[in-house]
Amino acid sequence: MRHLPTRADSAAPTRSRRRCSVFTIAALSFSIGAASCFAPALASPASAAETCAPGTSAKVAGPPPALAQLGLSAGDAMPTGAGVLVAIIDSGVDASRPQLSDAFGPGSVSLIADDQPASGLTDVFGHGTAIAGIIAARPSSQSGVVGVAPEAKIISIRAFRGDDDNLRSQGLGPDAARTAAGIRLAADAGAQIIVVAMADDTDEPGTRAATEYATALGSLVVASAGDAVRTEDGAPAPIEALEAPHYPAAYPDALGVTALDIDGLTAVGGMRGAQVDVAAPGQNVLTTATGAGDCVYAGDAPDASFATAYAAGAAALVAEAFPLEGPAGWAYRLKATADRPNPDSHDPLVGWGRLQPLLAIGLRPDASTRGPESPFADNLSTQIDPPTTQVSAAAEAPDNTPVIIGVSAAALSLLATFAVLGRLRRRFTA
After folding, report:
1. C-alpha to C-alpha distance for 121 and 320, rounded to whole angstroms
2. Of 137, 130, 146, the residue nearest 75 (C-alpha)
3. In the chain, what are the domain boundaries?
4. What is the pLDDT of residue 335?
5. Which pick of 9, 114, 178, 286 has the fewest CB atoms within 10 Å?
6. DSSP 3-state assignment of 41?
7. pLDDT per residue over 226-285, tens digit each?
8. What is the full DSSP assignment across 256-288?
9. Has domain 23-362 been given CATH number 3.40.50.2300?
């Protein structure tokens, strides 16, 4: 496996963050802004302000470069996520986007009371719409965007309106209780994959319980492990800050995701430690924009929110292939087949490594599979490559000898009878 180094570029974009018990997500601003404890601002490409503005229907040439980083390409033989339901707990999703208009399953809802519909199918902030496009955008001749799982269904659970101080003061910003409620609603709706592209530095009992609840119902919670952290003067944060757990990524049942740049490297000052399970692309992200056409976000630095969306799409592909293996099996396949420096150990920067979803689908787990602990009891019996005939090693073949002898004797007796009758027939007709 190839080593995935950290980018040691002193000129890399920097961000600062105040320690506070709130969620962090990617800010979809079009220029570098002041950092907030909720959402460190990210720079988008210079053209983003023009191509991503509401009312603009720009087409950016596709496919998204992240698909190649994940080893995926367009083609009839590729997995699509068909039959999988993905719940996005975020700022809502703009259902008017043509790439997403037919992607919704039942269950979308808004958990906040503002001037937007209760359906959860609007998004004034844009973050949730970007996440949705990464996961499930349908191919279109009018767009270069295509999702990792373009036939998966999504539901939008709108848990916040935006990230600024004014909205937080009105109770419309990110909130741990609403996130926990959203996780439960998503699990109750039957979502196999639940996306929480946010990170909270406080272990809220409600979020922990909701994650455990979702896992018990068969849902895999895919969550951001957090973004790169720097001090106010631009220096890398102390190691203890980088290793501080973020939730729900740090929960044992969740799949925590960190971001890689366009070269497959982690960012300086990126979150690390046990909460990082896997790494996924998070820079130059081509996806859908609220009220607009195609948009490229995170042009200057990788962002864990978008990486989380790519990981969720990869999980949907695995869930399509192995619907009965459940969240533990899906997460195991993704971790065991990820590209990492040492195939036998977890790396503090990239976890079990860069995602390779096609290898995850092709994995035949057995006792020789290296990496994370396997959830399969004997590491031999999984859904892949099932034998055409199963024979118990303890069962003995039945002894059919008496039956064979009896049948043979009966057959010989009948032949002898026919021979006698034949002789008698010739005798009487002579």
Report:
1. 25
2. 146
3. 23-362
4. 98
5. 9
6. strand
7. 876 666 776 676 677 677 889 999 999 999 999 999 999 887 656 778 899 999 999 999
8. EEEEE-TTS-BPTT---STT--EEEE-SSEEEE
9. no
